[in-house]
Hints:
This protein has about 130 residues and is an all-alpha fold. The chain has 2 domains: about 1-35; about 55-125, no CATH class. About 75% of the residues lie in helices and about 0% in strands. The chain has 6 helices and no strands. Helix 4 runs antiparallel to helix 5 (about 100-110). The longest helix has 30 residues, at about 60-90.
Amino acid sequence: MALDPLTAVSELATSVINKIWPDKSEQEKQQLVAAVTLVQGQIDVNKEEAKSPNIFVSGWRPFIGWICGISLGYTYLGYPLLLWAQAIWFPTLHAPILGNDGMLYELLFGMLGLGGLRTFEKWKGVA
Length: 127
């Protein structure tokens, strides 16, 4: 069955308009599906990494966690004690330099999932 010219022109115009000004809801749905697929893929990779007997595959997350914990302990316990000991026993020495502890918080929040995203999802009623 042949299309009449009016229908053909209408379909062509609709496809051109959709390419120039795509439907936002459909575009957002596609972006959401892509994001969910990406996150699910990362979760699957994380599960496989955790199962590995090789310490260099399964142990990097705990290693980063321990480094973060040790660094925070040094920043808030070790460093003040070193400054105290240095002031008492070696007052002429310069105080040791403390690193950028702000980056430790970024690492800690990322590892613990404290970015607030899950809280936002709960407010919006996402399961």
